[in-house]
Specification:
This protein is mainly α. The chain has helices at residues 5-18, 25-51, 56-68, 72-80, 91-102, 110-122, 134-159, 182-189, 202-211, 219-227, 230-236, 242-259. The protein starts with a helix and ends in a 7-residue tail after the last helix. The protein binds fe (ii) ion.
């Protein structure tokens, strides 16, 4: 990618975002949330790629992936008024369609275009397919970590904000019931990612977000998660019920061990 191309892509993205803002304040809050999220994910990406020994070109391609990873969110919200893929459509696949339809990557070498489409399309899959390897796997892991780090920021801010100021689509509409599901606790005990299909309540959803630690890839990601207080911030919003306290203890132990690791693949 030409060195000044990333600047052009960033301008395109800002312009694209602007085209979605309209009269409705609640809708604008949801668009603005995703625009801000994107900027933070780009910053996270730069921190992560800075912690690894990547070439300047790889770092630029990685930042372009961060810039476009959620480009499908805008069209998704405009069409369906939700960020729930399960009741609308896959926002990552939609994002690739948007990029192709708009021809925004037309100036990039074919190989970089392919790598960006692939990493964007895999940024939200439950598990990365085993066939993905080499540079594709590295870029996919990077965007998945950079994204999770900022989604934690969004949720921690969301849960501590008065309800009237919240962007409505963030909580995904789960009911705020007491306790949490056994199935979710069992999943955490196995150090596995919680699946959206297991969720019955907002507490389950918060535990799903914490289970993402089992899918983080780089020591720098674990360190950022701890240093920025996301672990504590999410834990604080959960009830102090015995089962939950145990589950949080296991998660904390796992994160502390990984954060202490050296740089490179965890
Ligand atoms: Fe996304």
């Amino acid at each position: 990618m030409e060195p000044n191309e990333l600047g052009r892509l960033k301008e395109w993205f800002s312009e694209y975002c602007r085209s979605f803002y309209a009269e409705n304040e609640a809708d604008n809050r949801n668009f603005s949330l995703k625009e801000t999220h994107t900027h933070h994910v780009c910053e996270n990406m730069n921190l992560l790629t800075g912690s690894l020994k990547l070439s300047p070109n790889e770092r630029t391609v990685a930042e372009a992936i961060a810039l476009f990873h959620d480009v499908g969110r805008f069209e998704q919200y405009r069409r369906y008024s939700t960020f729930r893929d399960d009741i609308s459509e896959n926002h990552a696949a939609l994002g690739v369609k948007v990029m192709k339809g708009e021809g925004v990557l037309a100036n990039l070498p074919e190989e970089e275009r392919r790598a960006i489409y692939l990493a964007v399309s895999l940024h939200n899959v439950f598990r990365v397919p085993p066939a993905i390897n080499g540079r594709d796997l590295l870029l996919t892991r990077l965007i998945r970590d950079a994204d999770k780090l900022d989604i934690w920021r969004v949720f921690v801010e969301f849960y501590t904000m008065p309800e009237s100021e919240r962007a409505s689509a963030v909580g995904l509409g789960f009911p705020d019931l007491p306790g949490c599901s056994r199935e979710v606790l069992d999943c955490l005990a196995r150090r596995e990612l919680v699946n959206l299909s297991m969720l019955k309540s907002l507490n389950d959803f918060k535990l799903l977000q914490l289970s993402w630690v089992f899918d983080l890839n780089f020591p720098a990601s674990f360190r950022l998660m701890v240093d920025r207080g996301y672990m504590d911030g999410l834990a604080m919003t959960l009830p102090k019920d015995g089962n939950l306290v145990n589950a949080l203890g296991l998660i904390r132990e796992y994160v502390a061990g990984k954060a202490a690791g050296g740089d490179g693949d965890a």
